[in-house]
Design goal:
six-stranded antiparallel β-sheet; Aspartate Aminotransferase, domain 1; two-stranded antiparallel sheet; alpha+beta
Length: 123
């Protein structure tokens, strides 16, 4: 992960998300309308029509698959429930780096989030 200089912290501070992974996600959806990038929960998220689809937190890919597809997503290798606070979020999964090494795996995972969020009413 990258680091940046923070005067208030008194030196170099590690970024809360993998910059390389964030750039790969940006490239996937650069031409798709309605997708917005936003900093949230110490990471970076992407929203479609105002609904969160997924994001990057530390080295994890975060994907909003929805409650109906959560069990199937959790059954996939390298996926686990999204839990960074001790309270798991229903309908969300975290994918470790082994699960999105290949571009087609990253597109498949993040595509699930875009599909779910894209089907929700715009905010």
């Amino acid at each position: 992960m990258a680091a940046y200089y923070n005067v208030w912290a008194g030196g170099l501070v590690e970024m809360a998300y993998d910059q390389g992974l964030a750039e790969r996600v940006r490239e996937l959806f650069a031409d798709r309308p309605g997708i917005v990038e936003k900093k949230m929960f110490g990471g970076l998220c992407w929203l479609i029509n105002g609904n969160m689809a997924g994001g990057v937190y530390k080295e994890f890919l975060i994907v909003r698959v929805g409650p109906d597809k959560e069990a199937a997503a959790l059954a996939q290798p390298h996926a686990r429930r999204f839990d960074i606070t001790g309270r798991p979020m229903k309908g969300w999964v975290m994918v470790s780096s082994e699960g999105y090494e290949e571009d087609e795996d990253l597109a498949r995972w993040f595509g699930m989030g875009i599909d779910f969020a894209g089907d929700l009413p715009p905010k």
